[in-house]
Amino acid sequence: MTVLKEINFMIKKWIFYASIALILAFISSGFKGSNSQVIDYSEDQLLQTFVLPSQYPQDYYKYQIVFTGYSFTGFKEAVAFKESQGNYRQVNRFGYMGKYQFGKDALSYLGIKNHSAFLADEKLQERAFERLLAVNKGKLKKEIEIFSGKEVAGVLVTESGILAAAHLGGSSSVKKFLYSNGKNLKRDGFGTSIASYMRKYAGYDTSSIVAEE
User: Global pTM?
Assistant: First the structure.
């Protein structure tokens, strides 16, 4: 009888531990990366795809993920993040201001004289940025046609890259860079070159900007 009791005890003990092992294996299988889900997210008629680490997309509803990709919105936000981390109130030590870091000369060209009002008006800053893009697109129309798709000093030239570089250093600096095959290279006060902007912001869709001539 004692031997039978010991055998029964060992069987029950084995079943207990085996059950725990199965439960742990089942739970951990729910967190494997191979079960990642792909969901489509649509915003402003733009459809993008995301891969999330959870197998339950509803876990992410509260984060309101927006991926702008290489759209025009993506271009604006990428430039803005580099310029000011998207801060409409930012003024740097050289006096450049706003989300897109406008200089006083650029604001004056656009007819904006009240700098305090400019900093306080987010919609005005967005309109000013788009207007300046249109102005630069007009000034660089010929260069966009000639150089787009070509490499200059190891940099692939695209329309969006040209416009970003012009925002940093002005349209004349972009022309000098392109026609000198990259030898005439302007940098801003922080040492950032127009070539780096041309490379970093290449391939965005800026076709919605109508050149102002």
Answer: 0.69
Q: How many residues does the chain have?
A: 213
Render 120-139 in DSSP notation, one character per residue.
H-HHHHHHHHHHHHHHHHHH
The DSSP element (H or E) to which 39 belongs, if any, is strand 37-43
Sign of CA dihedral 200, 123, 136, 193: negative
What is the residue type of 51?
V
Torsion of CA 129, 131, 135, 141, to 10 degrees: 90
Residue 45 CA, distance from chain mean position: 18
Q: Give the residue from 51, 88, 83 showing the smallest Cα distance to 67.
A: 51
Distance separating alpha carbons of residues 75 and 26, to the nearest angstrom? 44
Q: What is the pLDDT of residues 82-133, one digit of tens each?
A: 999 999 999 999 999 999 999 999 999 999 999 999 999 999 999 999 999 9
Amino acid at 118: F
Each residue's pLDDT tens digit, 193-211: 999 999 999 999 999 999 9
